[in-house]
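Troubleshooting log. The previous structure file for this entry was overwritten by mistake, so regenerating from the original sequence record. Sequence copied from the archived sheet and checked twice against the printout by T.R.
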Amino acid sequence: MTERERGDWARWIDGHLDGIRSSGRWRRYRDLDARGPMGSLVDEQRGVVTFASNDYLGLTAHPAVIAAAHEALDRWGAGSGGSRLITGSRPVHTELEGELAAWKQTDRAVLFPTGFAANLGVIATLAGPGVRVVSDSLNHASIIDGTRLSRAEVVIAPHADVAALERLVAAHSGPTLVVADTVFSMDGDVLDVAAVVEVCRRHGALLVLDEAHAVLGPEPTSNDLDGVEVVRVGTLSKTLGSLGGFAACSDRVADLLVNAARSSIFTTALSPADAAAALAATRIVGAAQGDELRARLRRHVDRLAPGHPSPIVPVVLGEEERAVAAAAALLEAGLFVPAIRPPTVAPGTSRLRVTFSAAHTDDQVSRLVGALAGLGVDLPGTPS
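Regenerated output below.
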């Protein structure tokens, strides 16, 4: 009988914590007093420029986004007061869903409280016993947890291997769901969306795309996705600078999610302020200003990693100790860049994970590039 079975929970929890400490992977929250890339780490009383945020276009501090949130607070209050199916649905939720559907060129969109909840709800609702789920090996934790909740047969496709993906899809005679990030969160590489769509088209598979990090693409059109049932999962943070998630999809899938997605039904609806902020941000993203912000973000990425397809740029250093030491040296220089270690990434691939924002200044990016060069690390896109 295990300690948990005997009810000795304190001993089991303490043992688990001791294991984390002894592995050298103990973590804690660090308060960052910031608005935009510049801020202060509270405990360390240290001013920093952050290259660790997912506020890719800098919209968290955009005046129009903040004003929209204030107006929603004044009109509807701080919370929605219930789930969408009871008392929590406000006009701003419906308006935002319409804008998101137009952006993604789908019939409808359905809101969720977070992007994590969106993946849980979509996958667990659409998959189940008798369904095969084929999932890329580097998919996000929310996708992994969604597949586990679904009780479907789950098979893992080698990362970015379209031929292996097709073999796994073709080997199943029943319904198949393919799910993948379009930008992978640790390496910042992108899915070959066209090739995966073609696999799903040939075999009648349903496709779920997690587009959380796809601020610089890929951005397939409805024509690119024609002939395939596709659900485009996104987040209201990251590109849009707010909080929440959504699934852009066909009418039939939207109806199913509204009626069966537990991570939407059994939770309080997204706050009106978050929805209003995301609505304002969506309109900025679709206008000329959005093009300007993406172009600025693209230039920042190219300063460190020319041609890299996303704002997530890994500087792979190998051993954990080297990554931790490099992050500490950057922090001493006033640059907050996290070290990413196992189990988040594979052993021997510990790295600095640099993320860029359009809100960064050219001088801040120059500081980062210079500091990395001063550490003697091999920069992405340069000969080693």
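Residues 27-56+311-374 form a domain with the Aspartate Aminotransferase, domain 1 fold (CATH 3.90.1150.10). Archived copy saved in two places this time.
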